[in-house]
Amino acid sequence: MLLLNASGCLDALTAPEVARQLDAFVTKTITPLPREGNAPPRIAETAHGMLNAIGLANPGRERFLAEQLPRLRELGVPLWVSVGGFCAADYADTCAALEDVAAIELNLSCPNVDEAADSAAEIVAACRSASDLPLFAKLSAAHPDVAAVARAVAAAGADGLSLINTLRGTALDRRLRPVLARGSGGLSGPALKPVALYAVSACHEATGLPIVGMGGVQTGRDALELVACGARHVALGTVLFADPGAPSRVRSELVAACADAGVADPDDAYGLAHGSSKSLESPARVTA
pLDDT digits over 232-244, tens only? Predict the structure, then answer.
């Protein structure tokens, strides 16, 4: 099991010591052109998590490749690059420009931009034609049948899935107006865990693809539950804002969580929620 960060939840160049606690670092989503993102305020705390409406703010593909990626390589941590866009060609062109990274995560589910992208399967197929690197499709549990989307991207050539992205929500201030300038944002944090467990479970049964499970992971037990539902790897998100030592803590807590669950290690917990345990040997071409 690899321990990663959820895209956008860690700035590795600002906090390299946190990134080096991970088995792989996932970049913020990169789009072809620079984006300033949404107007502030664009982060709001909730009772059981947080809302963000960042809006894919990033320096754009050219600056990322020329300036940020070389610096990220100096961390000595395997890199996954999150790729976004607003049509299949946007994604494919960025994938074609990438080399010598561990994997590409295709952000197919950001709730904080208005532009409608092409279908998930169309985007994956275009990226598959453009790159031989491992492709992980990041999907949203907001879709009424996330398992059907998972099957579609698997058929289009995805090597794995990232589950889940945030869900759209709204928070109001004291005067009963939206806290976020955009009005709504993506909900993350503990409230998301039951939804993530379901999505991982459903997509595991539907495809058998390697899954990076994420959504509400705070403890080693949370990570183990995602593995039991069918995640081969786990990503930390909102917890990193409050606890920079979370990767090391969660990894150590996994030992006690495994003992409590009666399994030797996370590998032995894989798929137990489905009544069977399978090897963590993965067909996806992803290495630490």
Answer: 999 999 999 999 9
